[in-house]
UniProtKB/TrEMBL annotation:
It comes from the Eukaryota. Keywords: Membrane, Transmembrane, Transmembrane helix. It comes from Rhynchospora pubera. Residues 179-210 are annotated as: Disordered. Residues 185-197 have a biased composition (Basic and acidic residues). GO terms for cellular component: 1,3-beta-D-glucan synthase complex; plasma membrane. This is Glucan synthase-like 1.
């Protein structure tokens, strides 16, 4: 197609026609499509993004300069040889895991090593000759700093190539490609010792070869080298890099290796210098780089700080001290577990041009960027988390930006207007505790000061997420606690007063409102089951049933059970369905949703709802949010019962047991429960919540239903329960230390927090008050005397427990016969009392179990209320008794939790089904997940 005259109005149309022509005349066959799933995904997204609406990119020399900032503390930089080879308790090493998960990429890597002569016959040779390449290959598939640096340095490589393309004519590009191929062929032939090139062409003189090499160098190593350095800087804020160098930490050498191989990389750290006799210290913010001419690390800047750096939260403090070393008009904040791709780096010029466009009445000050979660490819749990995150970072944030206009800063891929933010308080707030979720406060600050936040879908950054249930729960605990602190912050208060009504509603639901509503849903479940329990025990339910047959009132049943659809996680999954419909098509989205339900996604999302509600509510009541390190390793190993109990006892297990006991009592005394269908319809959602909260940590735990592991896990749990505490003992070793840490928030809470805690704990006493009047020994007596006599029974039980506990502590070690004697006397007295009651009263044997259901919650309520007065009681002798009671209850809770687990592990076929559910994605891809779980590696001789 020839254009004799083409004006500016035809430029856009001409470019589209050229693109269409290129697509139509392409002759590539389908056999050239990559087999690797990740490669196909990247090509697909890049191809689709080219048709999206994006600004036209300027030449590199005219583009905005920008920097990338990554906070780093002490995470993995490059996996060491020992880390790659060391095996966990199941006999699985990191390298073995990667070889099975990325089997095609490992095969390609070995082929490259053979082509380079590093591996000749056996793959084991790579440990001797290609160790560095092996370490990097593994590190690029984990959540390491080296992976992040490699991804961000694609910006530099892309700018170098784009600078060359900007200044080169089409004939220069073609000549450079031809000269480059001639040079490579010549070098390949010379490496094999031949005078001619390897494909039989005429011999090339040394003068021709030198001309080829110089021309290629001139084409590809010209002024683009300096231009790329002027336009891009990458600063990694390695806060403790100075102390790591002083301690000869291997991480310091690995960071230096990254600087050697990435010229645009700069490292900022805090240097502590002793002053005078060593009693005082001076603190400096230091920026260093690697000088290739001097072949050593050199300082660029050294700025003295007024005092220690870490006064607030560590991560924002780390960012704040390093942001002064960034350059240019924009700064992109990238987390330590993120990645980028070369094809996405090509579009950064387009993204920066967004600053010159008006969105509404203002130009943007914060550019939101799409994320791709790259850790959701193996386990079902990782897939659930990936799907949830993907729907939020794509569809969710797109809607928040336009039309709702309430998008904030939720994570690290966003691009800041550097000068705008530096002059308005920076990109991070670092106040202790209140800014535990430091990211979103940058968005609050931007909105309050008149900034404009946008979101753009045509460019993406890779993101690693937590892949194990314990990691996911700790992450959600941190985020939920952070939202609790946000609710108490003045930023939310100011935004609530300044936003218009509709933006205020949108802002509420998309920030703290989501967690507040989740807490309300859980509280509604509590109100529902406690209300039903009150109706049954008080007799009101029977009287109502006599007046109007509620068993046929379908409308009432429907209204009372509306929370079921919420608890199933259907509403949580709705954004995923919509996002997958846009990305994959409606039928594929529905099929993915069905597969998620078959893989027990509803259990996971219900469990996640409990995590959010617990930690958000605790932070609202007591404050004290804290950073929880989640870890970024590969999670395929089995987690012990004791570890799961430590993490979920207070947030899920106790609450699940409480609701389960309420439902059992309701089934025993409710008139409606005689109609099985109505009882099931009323309580099935609550039972589903109980099962999810108690069994989810084991359902989503590799080998969670293995009989031997369950047996040894419970044995370890009992050893942990009885292990005494001490100064140097950690919570992972002793129950006493864990219990002290778990109740520490009650020590620092305020007056209203203590009052509300006591009021909430009073609910446990209702069990006793309601059930004792239904005992056979009560003979339908409704006087207060029955309730008072029940307290006497509790007092007697407490005295007997204290006597036995005191005898155990005093005589069990040296005079064991005395301890056994006390136990025997106690048992005899209890049996005698039961016999007397059976003989002379209307007491029946079943009343023993009914009394236990009534009295055990009362004991837990007493313990919970006394813990509110922990600072006072800790100085008295009563503290040891209280601790003994609390230990007894934790043993009891452990037995209740392990009982259904033991039944499921005993049933045939359950372990195999659980493995299939948990690793269905791996089975679908033909991965040898069973070998990873069992650690049975085959060795070839």
């Amino acid at each position: 197609m020839q254009w004799s005259c083409r004006g500016e109005e035809h430029d856009v149309f001409y470019r589209q026609v050229k693109r269409l022509q290129t697509i139509l005349v392409s002759t590539d066959s389908m056999s050239n499509v990559p087999k690797n799933i990740e490669a196909r995904r990247r090509i697909t997204f890049f191809s689709n993004s080219l048709f999206m609406n994006m600004p036209r990119a300027p030449q590199v020399e005219k583009m905005m300069a920008f920097s990338v900032l990554t906070p780093y503390y002490s995470e993995e930089v490059v996996y060491s040889k020992e880390q790659l080879r060391s095996e966990n308790e199941d006999g699985v090493s990191i390298l073995f895991y990667l070889q099975k998960i990325y089997a095609d990429e490992w095969k390609n890597f070995v082929e490259r090593m053979k082509r380079q002569g590093i591996v000749k016959e056996k793959e084991d040779e790579i440990w001797d000759k290609g160790l560095q390449e092996l370490r990097l290959w593994a590190s690029y598939r984990g959540q390491t700093l080296s992976r992040t640096v490699r991804g961000m340095m694609y910006y530099y490589k892309a700018l170098e190539m784009l600078t060359f393309l900007d200044s080169a004519a089409e004939v220069d590009i073609r000549d450079g490609r031809e000269l480059g191929s001639v040079s490579s062929r010549r070098q390949e032939g010379s490496s094999h010792g031949h005078g001619r090139d390897s494909i039989g062409q005429s011999p090339t003189s040394s003068r021709t070869v030198s001309r080829v090499n110089s021309d290629v160098s001139a084409l590809f190593k010209g002024h683009e080298y300096g231009t790329a350095l002027m336009k891009f800087t990458y600063v990694v804020a390695c806060q403790i890099y100075g102390s790591q160098k002083a301690k000869k930490d291997p991480r310091a050498d690995e960071i230096l290796y990254l600087m050697k191989n990435n010229e645009a990389l700069r490292v900022a750290y805090v240097d502590e210098v002793e002053k005078g006799n060593g009693n005082e210290k001076e603190y400096y913010s230091v920026l260093v780089k690697y000088d290739r001419k001097l072949e050593k690390e050199v300082e660029i800047y050294r700025i003295r700080l007024p005092g220690p750096l870490k006064l607030g939260e560590g991560k924002p403090e780390n960012q704040n001290h390093a942001i002064i070393f960034t350059r240019g008009d924009a700064v992109q904040t990238i987390d330590m577990n993120q990645d980028s791709y070369f094809e996405e780096a090509l579009k950064l010029r387009n993204l920066l041009e967004e600053y010159n466009r008006h969105y509404g009445i203002r130009k943007p000050t914060l550019l939101g960027v799409r994320e791709h979660v790259f850790t959701g490819s193996v386990s079902s749990l990782a897939w659930f988390m990936s799907a949830q995150e993907t729907s939020f970072v794509t569809l969710g944030q797109r809607v928040l930006a336009n039309p709702l206009k309430v998008r904030m800063h939720y994570g690290h891929p966003d691009v800041f207007d550097r000068l705008w933010f530096i002059t308005r308080g920076g990109i991070s707030k670092a106040s202790k505790t209140i800014n535990i979720s430091e990211d979103i406060f940058a968005g609050f600050n931007c909105t309050l000061r008149g900034g404009n936040v946008t979101h753009h879908e045509y460019i993406q950054v890779g993101k690693g997420r937590d892949v194990g249930l314990n990691q996911v729960s700790m992450f959600e605990a941190k985020v939920s606690s952070g939202n609790g602190e946000q609710t108490l912050s003045r930023d939310i208060y100011r935004l609530g007063h300044r936003l218009d009504f509709f933006r205020m509603l949108s802002f509420f639901y998309t920030t703290v409102g989501f967690y507040f509503n989740t807490m309300v849903v859980v509280l509604c479940v509590y109100a529902f089951v406690w209300g039903r329990l009150y109706l049954s025990l008080s007799g009101l339910e029977s009287s109502i049933r006599n007046e109007a047959d509620s068993t046929t009132n379908a409308a009432l049943v429907t209204v009372l059970n509306q929370q079921f659809i919420i608890q199933l996680g259907l509403f949580t999954a709705l954004p995923m369905i919509i996002e997958n419909s846009l990305e994959l098509g409606f039928l594929n989205a529905i099929w993915d949703f069905i597969k998620m339900q078959l893989q027990l996604a509803s259990m996971f999302y219900t469990f996640s709802m409990g995590t959010k509600a617990h930690y958000y509510g605790r932070t609202i009541l007591h404050g004290g949010a804290k950073y929880r390190a989640t870890g970024r390793g590969f999670v395929v190993q089995h987690k012990s019962f004791a570890e799961n109990y430590r993490l979920y006892a207070r947030s899920h297990f106790i609450k699940g047991i409480e609701i389960g006991v309420i439902l059992c009592v309701y089934a025993s005394y409710s008139a409606i429960s005689k109609n099985s269908f109505v009882y099931i319809a009323l309580t099935i959602s609550s039972w589903f919540l109980v099962v999810s909260w108690i069994l989810s940590p084991f359902v989503f735990n590799p080998s969670g239903f293995d009989w031997l592991k369950t047996y040894y896990d419970f044995e370890e749990f009992m050893n942990w329960i009885w292990c005494p505490g001490g100064i140097s003992v950690k919570s992972e070793q002793s129950w006493e230390v864990w219990w002290e840490e778990e109740t520490d928030h009650l020590r620092t809470t305020g007056l209203w927090g203590k009052v509300l805690e006591i009021i909430l704990d009073l609910r446990y006493f209702f069990f006793q008050f309601g059930i004792v009047y239904h005992l056979h020994i009560a003979s339908n007596d409704t006087s207060i005397l029955v309730y008072l006599l029940s307290w006497i029974c509790i007092l007697v039980a407490v005295v007997l427990f204290v006597v036995v506990s005191h005898a155990r502590n005093k005589y069990s070690a040296k005079k064991h016969i005395y301890y056994r004697m006390v136990q025997a006397i106690t048992i005899v007295l209890v049996i005698a009392a039961v016999v007397v009651l059976l003989k002379f009263t209307k007491f029946e044997f079943v009343d023993i179990f009914t009394s236990m259901v009534a009295f055990f919650p009362t004991g837990w309520g007493i313990i919970s209320i006394l813990l509110v007065f922990k600072p006072i009681l800790k100085r008295t002798a009563m503290w040891d008794t209280l601790r003994s009671f609390a230990r007894f209850y934790d043993v009891l809770f452990g037995l209740v939790v392990v009982a259904p687990l033991a039944v499921l592990t005993w049933l045939p076929g359950i372990p195999e089904m659980q493995t299939r559910i948990l690793f269905n994605e791996a089975f679908s891809r033909g991965l040898q997940i069973s070998r990873i779980l069992t650690g049975k590696k085959t060795h070839t001789n």
